[in-house]
Write a structure and sequence with these properties.
With 1154 residues, the chain is α/β, with parallel strands linked by helices.
């Protein structure tokens, strides 16, 4: 809703020529209306929630608002307490000026003294005009109160006599600007106070002082003699009128107990002196610690004098009572949240982490399946825990509250918000101050600041937390069987929420604190919504994105008259959506039934970003909401332009990596706080520069993703026209808040933005709106893509990501050369061990252990050298004078650590391999010994048997012989202790290496790699599929059939060649293994992956996706062959099996010798 300072300058009458009136005509057209009459009438016809909105807008314009609203029919006034309930103000009293602390709160609950101004009888002094001067800075006169000289200000009032308006003067803490150093409320009674005795009595009981404007000192001033009055009286009169008489003045003072010092007489024509005296007097009142009555306490007085209070209706009272039922039990916000709203706190955060980890697999060990099922079990357990804690007392009351119909629900929610605000505000304001203090003074102490950040988030409590809890109630019930009573209990909730969306209530889409979308809940809400509107649910999605506290919500509220929470009291993070119904006439033109507006909260400001180097949350949120929107307004305050550029880069980059993004989101830039009218022209250069930068980074991102061919400009990814889509919006306030009125230019500029936006939508053919079910599907798949994206969101911008990738590539070559060097060395040593003393007759096998020691010593020397090589390479890399290098300075330490752990890993593996080789060789030697021994035994046994047979003179049957041999064999075998050769699961190993290799690729790649089964991969032929290229080539669809076939054939041929190359590599490795009798090493797989990479680089038509399929194919083949070779190796090196192989030969010998 626009806020416009000129709103009260209205004239219903037809314009009359200014100087053309004749003496006989009435001066005024009978249609002319006094603005006060208009305001009174509007207040009478408005609904209670609109009233609140009107009051806050009026107050933003620094207009006075009705405190007591007269009703000329019933002659009964109403105290407008409810209307003012929502008014939140900030100020800084002089006493706190040094500490930079400000006071924030609901104005009706604040202890502010009220000073009233009334006229009794005639007064030649213009009261309202004087008040305006009293409250305004001399250089910036603001018409807080409607006054005579305003347009139609002198039209006779018809219904607004008896109206009492109020306005607040709030200091900003700067004595040069402040008119009063303490806050004060100024009330103004319209009409002759003598006729409004009740109003007078009310004011005398509630005010600290009453200033009476009167020339008619002899007249009836009996309204002043109020027994209940606590107010100090002041008399203001004009000495320049003819009838002025000092005696009468003195009499009047005596009669009505007005102190002589409390008489203000305007002596000169000039106003300045007079206003100054008045100000001194008012200041005197405020400083003497006067009675302060809160507006909400005035309700009692109103009741006593016979006024109505607008909160006195049943629905309002019930709403209040229902809300109090919940908030009464809050003593400690943190504890309350833990006890009463436990589902959406730690548990839901952990579930969200698990959900992401299930996609990203950051901490997976080698066994992926086991890890997956572990995560699944943990999630199921957490859901169970939620069910056990479900439906706390507060949540039962909350669900009851929102299940009420229409107005009562609105009252309930408003009351809840009001009461919760009060609870969390106090804690929050001190915490926030501390936070700012730490950020400013000890920014290096990140832990402390993080801790405070968490505390702030823990202490904040609003209705949104109850709604989050509601989502979780629903979500955890979803894992129960359909007919479970607990599940049926929550079945109706989504429909309720859908109805609230239709009523224009903001609903959370992304929970920014947990960084997750409650998908089951949202799905059901949208499904219900779709049914509620009879499937007429086409929506156009508009989002605003920007750093926190840059006026995003204010912008949307001004643009659409909606009510997104504006900064105060709020520190939840996330994205809220809200539906605006499109009118019948516009539906066909805009091609939609609703406009969905999404407001995002909590992108980090620069100070926060500097503290926390994790960019993940913001990048994810931004990518999601831009991806969901048809139009995104990028809100930029000058000082935050860098952050927004960085975030945009990541968003573009993420889009380039995603398979899911099909449409081109349109974006607009709203530059805030630019008030110069030549802004548009002056910023031409800036705009060009911005476009250049955006293009540059798109190119970088495209290069990284191997998509340069089709993405060379920002506008290839996003729809943006720098000339048409840039808006410059002047600052919101005209002067220094809190006393500054809104700048009329602000609303005008926002209105322009809206007009041209809607205009362009009407004429545009590009926008294809979806209905909510389609939107839902889209949200699901986009969110899935975001969850699987493991790499790009970690970076500040594409430049850093590019530099990082560059460093990784470098590092990988160093790592690879380290590994292959060590592997070569290892193979020679393994061969040496395996051949140890083979040719000698009497091997001294115990010497082998000494050799092993020597080898290990040599290895550790060599490993150290190789590690140093990497480290010095790294050092050299960082010494380059390249701007890229400076971007990744932060990561240097990581890579150093990584080199170190690589060394340790290889060291272990070498030790393990060498020891194994020694064991195998020792085993073989044992086998040899046993062989010899066996030969002896056989000879002996044969001799014995022969002897025995001769003695018994009996022949031994074949069976008997075999039995005898069997016994002997068993006996010998038992001497051979088993050497267990480890079974390596080559498939698992390869899978692990493959995942590591594809770590930095896009979400759909990780999704594929995490779910692929290598055992079935690479079995048949590798067939190139066309849909692997649609992503890389947006124009793919436009290719002719012939062209596509041609291209596919070419790619197929290249892939086949790569596969052949890899096959020959694999068989090379296998023959080395067989020749040298060595085991399988992971280096072989790394070699293969590197080979694929090298080859793919040469063929640029092979898309990222195709390359991944290729790698999976090759890895599947390799895993199968290596697994087989490994098995053979084990069999052939196991002494037992070796011996078993020899059994028939020995048996034959046995028979022969017999
Ligand atoms: N000086 C100035 N203040 C603004 C402007 N727009 C909004 N604000 C104030 O900045 C604060 C934060 O506004 P809000 O809309 O909640 O920001 P959001 O966090 O980006 O949604 C509020 O107190 C606004 O009154 C502006 O253009 N200039
Ligand atoms: Mg906001």
């Amino acid at each position: 809703m626009m806020s416009n300072l000129n709103a009260r300058h209205i004239k219903c009458a037809q314009d009359q020529p200014m100087y053309d009136y004749n003496l006989t005509d009435a001066y005024y057209d009978s249609d002319a209306i006094n603005p006060l009459d208009l305001i009174t009438a509007l207040f009478h016809c408005s609904d209670p929630f609109l009233l609140q909105e009107m009051v806050s807008k009026m107050s933003m314009c620094q207009f006075a608002v009705p405190l007591l609203l007269p009703n000329c029919d019933t002659h009964q006034s109403t105290l407008m307490l409810w209307a003012m309930r929502d008014l939140v103000k900030k100020f800084r009293p002089n006493s706190l000026a040094g500490d930079r602390i400000f006071v924030e709160g609901r104005i009706v609950e604040m202890d502010i003294p009220m000073v009233s101004f009334v006229r009794l009888g005639e007064s030649s002094l213009p009261k309202s005009q004087t008040l305006n001067k009293l409250l305004s800075n001399p250089h910036q006169l603001n018409d807080t109160f409607v006054q005579r000289d305003m347009e139609c200000g002198d039209v006779p009032r018809r219904i607004s006599d008896g109206l009492v308006e109020v306005s607040w003067y709030l200091p900003c803490g700067n004595t040069n600007i402040d008119m009063f150093t303490q806050p004060v409320a100024i009330a103004n009674l319209r009409g002759d106070g003598r006729l409004f005795k009740t109003q007078m009595s009310f004011l005398c009981q509630t005010s600290a002082a009453v200033f009476i404007f009167s020339d008619d000192l002899e007249g009836d001033l009996s309204t002043l003699n109020n027994r209940e009055s606590r107010a100090e009286l002041f008399l203001v009169t004009n000495s320049q009128r003819k009838a002025f008489n000092k005696e009468t003045l003195r009499d009047a003072c005596r009669k009505h107990k007005v102190k002589e010092t409390n008489v203000i007489v305007k002596i000169k024509k000039n106003d300045a002196e007079f206003v100054k005296t008045l100000r001194v007097q008012v200041n005197g009142v405020i400083e003497q610690n006067p009675i302060k009555m809160r507006v909400k306490d005035m309700a009692a007085v109103a009741g006593r004098v016979g006024f109505v209070v607008d909160e006195d209706c049943t629905e309002c009272r019930n709403g209040k009572a229902n809300a109090e039922g919940i908030t009464e039990s809050i003593h400690d916000v943190v504890k309350f949240k833990e006890d009463q709203l436990p589902l959406h706190g730690k548990i839901w955060k952990r579930i969200s982490q698990i959900e992401k980890e299930r996609c990203r697999m950051r901490n997976v060990g080698k066994d992926i399946e086991k890890y997956k099922s572990k995560l699944k079990t943990e999630e199921a357990k957490l859901r169970e825990e939620q069910q056990q804690k479900a439906f706390s007392d507060a949540m039962i009351k909350f669900t009851a509250g929102i299940s009420e119909s229409g107005t009562q629900r609105l009252y309930f929610l408003k009351w809840l918000k009001i009461q919760l605000d009060t609870h969390s505000r106090q804690n929050l304001s001190t915490l926030r101050e501390q936070y700012k203090d730490y950020c400013r003074n000890t920014p290096q102490n990140k832990e402390l600041i993080k801790c405070l950040d968490e505390q702030i988030s823990n202490c904040s409590l609003g209705p949104e937390h109850f709604f989050r809890e509601l989502c979780q109630l629903y979500e955890c019930a979803c894992s129960l069987p359909e007919n479970n009573p607990a599940r049926q209990k929550v079945q109706h909730l989504p429909a309720l929420c859908a109805q609230m969306l239709l009523d224009g209530f903001p609903v959370e889409l992304v929970d920014g604190d947990a960084s997750n979308i409650p998908m089951k809940w949202i799905t059901e809400v949208f499904t219900q919504l779709h049914q509620l509107v009879d499937t007429k649910s086409k929506i156009l999605v508009l989002t605003v994105l920007g750093v926190q506290s840059t006026g995003k919500s204010t912008l949307l509220n001004t643009m659409f008259g909606v009510q997104f929470a504006v900064s105060s009291g709020r520190c939840t993070r996330g994205a809220f959506m809200l539906l605006i119904k499109v009118s019948e006439e516009l539906r066909s033109e805009l091609k939609c039934d609703f406009i969905m507006v999404i407001d995002t909260e909590g992108l980090k400001s620069s100070e926060l970003a500097a503290l926390d180097i994790s960019y993940e949350h913001d990048n994810e949120l931004a990518t999601l909401v831009i991806g969901l929107s048809d139009i995104t307004i990028i809100n930029i305050a000058m000082e935050n332009s860098t952050e927004m550029k960085d975030i945009l880069q990541i968003v573009v980059h993420a889009f380039l990596r995603m398979k899911e993004v099909g449409k081109k989101p349109r974006c607009l830039f709203a530059h805030q706080n630019v008030s110069d009218m030549s802004a548009y022209d002056n910023n031409m250069r800036d705009r060009i520069r911005l476009v250049e930068q955006l293009n540059e980074m798109t190119q970088i991102a495209a290069r990284m993703e191997r998509r340069e061919a089709n993405n060379t400009k920002f506008t290839d990814v996003m729809d943006y026209d720098p000339d048409k889509d840039s808006y410059y919006i002047p600052g919101l306030w005209h002067g220094t808040p809190p006393m500054a009125p809104v700048n009329a230019g602000y609303s005008e500029a926002v209105y322009e933005l809206k007009k041209s936006l809607i205009g362009s939508l009407q004429t545009s053919d590009n926008i294809k709106t979806n209905d909510v079910t389609e939107f839902l599907r889209w949200t699901q798949s986009l969110w899935n893509a975001v969850k699987f994206e493991n790499f790009i969101f970690n970076f500040r911008n594409s430049l850093v990501a590019d530099a990082y990738t560059d460093l990784c590539t470098q590092y990988n070559t160093w790592e690879w050369s380290f590994q292959s060097e060590m592997n070569k060395w290892l193979i020679t040593k393994e061969t040496m061990i395996s051949n140890f003393g083979v040719a000698e007759k009497n091997v001294q096998i115990n010497l082998l252990r000494t050799r092993l020691k020597e080898f290990l010593h040599e290895a550790s020397k060599k490993l150290h050298e190789e590690e140093q090589k990497i480290l010095s390479n790294l050092e050299k890399y960082f010494q380059q004078k390249d701007s890229k290098v400076s971007l990744v300075e932060n990561y240097k330490q990581d890579f150093q650590t990584s080199a170190n752990s690589l060394k340790r890993r290889i060291e272990n593996s070498i030790k393990h391999s060498l020891e194994k080789a020694v064991e195998i060789r020792e085993g073989m030697e044992k086998v040899n010994k046993i062989k010899d021994k066996l030969m002896d035994t056989i000879e002996k046994k044969v001799r014995e048997l022969l002897k025995e047979c001769r003695e018994r003179n009996a022949d031994l049957s074949e069976d008997g012989l075999t039995r005898e041999f069997g016994k002997m064999w068993e006996g010998t075998m038992s001497e051979l202790s088993a050497v267990r050769l480890p079974e390596v699961d080559v498939y698992q190993d390869v899978h692990h290496l493959l995942r590591a290799d594809l770590r930095s690729k896009g979400g759909h790649v990780s999704e594929m790699v995490n779910t692929v089964d290598l055992k079935t991969s690479g079995q048949g032929e590798f067939l190139v599929k066309t849909d692997w290229f649609s992503l890389a080539k947006r124009c793919w669809k436009a290719f002719t059939h012939f062209h596509k076939r041609h291209l596919t054939a070419e790619i197929q041929e290249n892939c086949d060649r790569i596969i052949r190359h890899c096959d020959s590599l694999i068989s090379d490795h296998i023959s080395v293994m067989k020749r040298n009798n060595t085991g399988y090493h992971e280096t072989y797989i790394r070699d293969l992956l590197k080979a694929v990479d090298d080859q793919v680089k040469r063929h640029e038509q092979i898309s990222e996706e195709c390359a991944t399929h290729l790698k999976v194919h090759v890895c599947g083949r390799a895993a199968r062959l290596f697994q087989k070779t490994h098995k053979e190796f084990n069999v052939c090196n196991d002494p037992r099996s070796r011996l078993m192989e020899l059994k028939p030969i020995f048996l034959e010998n046995f028979f022969k010798s017999f």
